[in-house]
Amino acid sequence: GIRFLSKKCQERFALIGELLNQEQLDIALLQELWCEKDFQFLKQKLSTFYPYAHLFKRQDGADESFCKFTNALVLSGFIGSGLAVFSRYRIHDAFLYQYSLNGYPYMVQHGDWFGGKAVGKVSLNIGGLNVYVFVTHLHAEYCREKDQYLPHRVVQAWELQQFIRHTSAGADVVLLAGDLNMHPEDLGFRLLRLSTGLQDSFSQTSSFSGCEGGFTLLSENPFTHPEDLTAFGGGIRIDYIMFKGSQEVDISCESLSTTEGSVPYSDHEALTAHFLFRTKEKGNGCSREESSCVSEDLPELINTVNEARTEVKVGLHCSERMRYTAARTGIMGLVLLVLELAIAAVPLFALGAEQPFPKASFYLLGALCFAVLFSTVMLYIFYSMEVKALQEAEDQMRLVVSGLQEQLKECTKAQSSDQS
Amino acid sequence: GIRFLSKKCQERFALIGELLNQEQLDIALLQELWCEKDFQFLKQKLSTFYPYAHLFKRQDGADESFCKFTNALVLSGFIGSGLAVFSRYRIHDAFLYQYSLNGYPYMVQHGDWFGGKAVGKVSLNIGGLNVYVFVTHLHAEYCREKDQYLPHRVVQAWELQQFIRHTSAGADVVLLAGDLNMHPEDLGFRLLRLSTGLQDSFSQTSSFSGCEGGFTLLSENPFTHPEDLTAFGGGIRIDYIMFKGSQEVDISCESLSTTEGSVPYSDHEALTAHFLFRTKEKGNGCSREESSCVSEDLPELINTVNEARTEVKVGLHCSERMRYTAARTGIMGLVLLVLELAIAAVPLFALGAEQPFPKASFYLLGALCFAVLFSTVMLYIFYSMEVKALQEAEDQMRLVVSGLQEQLKECTKAQSSDQS
């Protein structure tokens, strides 16, 4: 919902509010709720059934007046994470992690860079259980065949799984929902699924109703471009609700449903899942979460992380090349500037020369040199940041892979000693 | 260690390498290791006793050549987190969180903004125990009486404790070390200590050797400015090693020592702590980490979080005012520009006027208007980001306080029902 830019923004928020009040859910997770004013509107509208709410604000935030102003100016960005949680249960704690990579600032038409993508976590207590709920929105995919953002999305998926893994050790139940902008077979989604152990509610539920194939971006929806989706059979599934239990709690997805493009809430279809929590009997006593030997999954996980590492390396190579190009162009601009200054110095030494000095073109060329220098320096800094972010992700992946391989080795050893 | 800017940079890294090899520690945590080249130098030098190493790279990173280049240009920043870990034990996993606020970019002389402050986490396995080690570096304090960075440091302390609390649920032992830039009685440090349960090794150890009062910034050190420290009795304690056990493991600090300013390693004194881990007997069976009623600490924690909230609100008020000033100045620049254009338009309509048009001053004024407009727009965006970050921190604090108050109420109820 970007005011003035998005179509029928306020009507849609009113519709969303009505839908949520009608459904009376336990938790509602929204993305792309950019303006604080719209959040306050929903908060008030939903206060009866969803008394607790949190909008993840940071960063690149804008207050309401700025929001109106910039949106009007198509400077839609600087507008926070856009992630919001409405809940029937008290929100005990909230935490936000911002992804280190999120597109390119100069790709203004794609606009992802301006909308600070992030993952938010809230802690709830539902019937004595620690329930950690994550909500996120990953970088959009604009062209599947030649996806220049693939390394960015893979790094985001990596950081998402790192955040979930590192922050959900104390949870009885983990839920994740959001617009992942990845197809179910995509590298980033496999990475997320395998490394966190989160299950996809669409593939796990016994009762599904809604669009064929669980599509959440549908050609029937009035806000989508049907021509983008014909190649995929009229729809794609890129929004997910994922879940995981723990050693104490079993969780199962009782039902999953999607809206079907008829009511114009959003360009994406809404997903609704019902879960059943069951406390496990404490039969096997005090089992601390040891590095359990699920060796059938380990090799697949190692392969997936290695695949992601390769993708990140490709991205690294690419952005190093871009940085090199920026540096080269910058040096050319500098040389041109020095030449200009030399030309300007000539009349000083050769006083009384006849030719008139070409002032206009001189200033124009000078301004051009400065523009080239400034933009290449900015690009160089930006690509340097990108290189470091990719390197950090690759380093982390290397550590995790070597740890997993160690674990696999021990498992195989343990199994073979069991057999002998 | 900033090359060219810092004094005797390479000699100091060589000295640090020798010291660490001599001590043969289990884990060494460094801050302000800005250049990858220096990290590689140390990694090789320490490879015998510290075979595992990780440098937290992201963001604002720079490769080696850029590092040299920018350092020479006093653009020292864009140079990563500066946090590094050297370890005798395999590093299984690494994760980085970047603070949302870190000074002001226009305070170039303080330079904190350029050095992307962050907290890094590594997971180690020491004798079968999950040991999580955190290393961080908070924003420096330049003037204690009128500390304009106080809200930034409080938000950093808040985010640090959030990161530690959220990511250390699965740990047997938690260690935190770093330059916190806070005195022991400071709000941020109390917040960190109370909310995470981490203990300060200086106050907990039975055997301390080194500077009086545990000082880590000392007037005797050749790299400090003694005049800054005379007000504090010749030194301050702003670097810490903190620790926490778990329900399974007891941890105690056997000894703590500091260097004493004689060998010129760094402007801060090095801290060395020895810890003893003891696995607890599993007497009380399978005790899940329930919200234990430590009601004697709860009121203090609530007070501290409220104090931090007040501080953040003051900062919020301040940065909203700054943003307002930026907007007002920007509008003045805009009005001036419009006036200029009107003046420029006059000769077009009044052709044949006698007075010569004052070209030079016209262009000068125009350039000034543009400069004012550009800088105020940048400042406005920057302050908007600051406001959002402060708001998010305040929102999180509000959630946590209300959760804690709920907990306190239940505790009091439980206690009174016990008594009756």
From TrEMBL, chains A, B:
GO terms for biological process: sphingolipid metabolic process. The chain crosses the membrane at residues 331-350, 362-383. It holds the Pfam family Exo_endo_phos. It is an enzyme of class 3 (hydrolase). SUPFAM superfamilies: DNase I-like. Its EC number is 3.1.4.12. It is found in: Membrane. Keywords: Hydrolase, Lipid metabolism, Magnesium, Membrane, Metal-binding, Sphingolipid metabolism, Transmembrane, Transmembrane helix. Pathway: Sphingolipid metabolism; Lipid metabolism; sphingolipid metabolism. One of its GO terms (cellular component) is membrane. One of its GO terms (molecular function) is metal ion binding. It is a multi-pass membrane protein. Signal peptide: none annotated. This is sphingomyelin phosphodiesterase. It comes from Danionella cerebrum. The lineage of its organism: Eukaryota, Metazoa, Chordata, Craniata, Vertebrata.
